[in-house]
Amino acid sequence: MKNRIAAAFTGAPLNDPLQTVFRETVLRYSIPQTYFDELIAGVHMDLAKKSYENFDELYLYCFRVAGVVGLIMLKIFGAHDDRARQHAIDLGIAFQLTNILRDVGEDWARGRIYLPQEDLKRFNVPEEQIAAGRIDQNFISLMKFQIDRARRFYAQSAPGLKLIEDPSSRLVASAMKDLYERILRKIEKNGYDVFSRRAHTRLAEKMAAVASLTLRRSRR
Fold first, then answer.
1. Tens digit of each residue's pLDDT (9 = 90 or more) over 74-105
2. What is the 3-state secondary structure (H, E, C) of the chain?
3. Whole-model pTM?
């Protein structure tokens, strides 16, 4: 895959229609090859690592698999203010942290745990407890800590939405942020049960969120 992506950034002829379209896209939006190199490195981390010792390690993973996606989308959405770059990374990190919190049980079943080992020890939540899906006050405190961390990244990303120049793209990014933040509220509403209840937003909630955002922007 890495070679196929690299080939699209050269001037060599391409026989694969998918590569051709990919080349046209990255050239049109001036998306650097380094973004895709980071993304592939993140996928390799997922294959090689089953756990993360601390948040610094987890942050690198989140940056590679999601923060970089934020940078790619920023190129497509359009934002020429340099400040938008870090905000896009923060939003990608927030999305990935939300996915991790929503999928604690599912990830464990797949042989992975993304919650930093350092945090598990801090809140006295052993991996055996994750395996058993046992929710106690220690686990709830751990989840509250993780949710607060994710919300800080959402808050840090918020100013970047105003820097997206295209109104439609700005609406899409805002809707995605709003819907993902709702997942955190669902986790809280479910009593932090991320083992037997999957936090998700229903179609009606998604439609209502988009309608609300559209209405708020039309009044400005």
1. 999 988 888 999 999 999 999 999 999 999 99
2. CHHHHHHHCCCCCCCCHHHHHHHHHHHHHCCCHHHHHHHHHHHHHHHHCCECCCHHHHHHHHHHHHHHHHHHHHHHHCCCCCCHHHHHHHHHHHHHHHHHHHCHHHHHHCCCECCCHHHHHHCCCCHHHHHHCCCCHHHHHHHHHHHHHHHHHHHHHHHHHCCCCCHHHHHHHHHHHHHHHHHHHHHHHCCCCCCCCCCCCCHHHHHHHHHHHHHHHHCC
3. 0.89
